[in-house]
């Protein structure tokens, strides 16, 4: 087995009940949920475990997602420290807000600092563009260079996510995204699907949100990562604290280079990818980016056993 990467999902993977079994079975996980709720003044159990409208509202979603993934990580770390045969990761990465979990997993940021920051981040992103003025859409079965060529002549629409081969996301003003969607279909995109989001995320229209976030980042104490993490902004490895806050500011309005990030990890010898958090979105992306990778998804209490079977995986196995 080569190197192992821990991956953390972003907005869109949230669902009622996420992390509930960890809360019920793990003191370490329960502590994360309770501490996060106390710091934010939110009932995290209600937000994450029960059906409610707030879970899909950006200002709440981001804190809920990060809290859930970090609660799962807390139990994974506890088990490793207790002697369970769970291998240490060699690198960490997260999609959009998942990058904060990657920073915590890498030891660069305190978990509760991550929770507080993404709560602010969600609020700033919600406020950046008035509701109804922005939009995003997924573009399927079209190469990135072709998407770029088609939208180049349409003002105020940009590529927001490079998810995996054949799947990108565009973002911008609502009318511009609608025009771009029609143009992309006419140019050969198999499908262009509007996304149920509240704003034009990861576009230059969110620059003001990133600038506000920078003010919140300023007093936060960071440490040099114990393991490298991969930033969405450049898809490069980060091993020192120096550029982290600037990357987090830029990340709000820059495209998410997820495919490039996974390719960088694979080039570094990573062949095992462990997604920690709700859903299997990142696992599905990696499967399309790295042929033959060992894929592990941890989103339920029972899934923890998969981590102890990593020493003898079959090539290309989804454990």
Decide which structural class fits the backbone.
alpha/beta
Radius of gyration (CA) equals 19 Å
Distance between the termini: 14 Å
**Strands side by side in the biggest sheet:** 8-7-2-1-9-10
Following the backbone from N to C, one meets helices and strands in this order, namely EHHHHEHHEHEEHEHEEHHEHEH
Q: How many domains comprise the coordinates?
A: 2
Low-pLDDT residue intervals, each spanning 5 or more residues: none
- Strand fraction equals 15-25%
Task: Please outline the major beta sheet.
Answer: 6 strands, mixed
Give the helix level as a range of percent: 40-55%
CATH architecture of the largest domain: 3-Layer(aba) Sandwich
How many strands?
A: 10
Question: According to CATH, what is the class of the largest domain?
Answer: Alpha Beta
At the fourth CATH level, what is the homologous superfamily of the largest domain?
A: Malonyl-Coenzyme A Acyl Carrier Protein, domain 2
Instruction: Summarize model confidence as the mean pLDDT.
Output: 95
Tally the helices.
13
Globally, the shape reads globular
CATH topology value of the largest domain: Malonyl-Coenzyme A Acyl Carrier Protein, domain 2
Quaternary structure of the protein: single chain
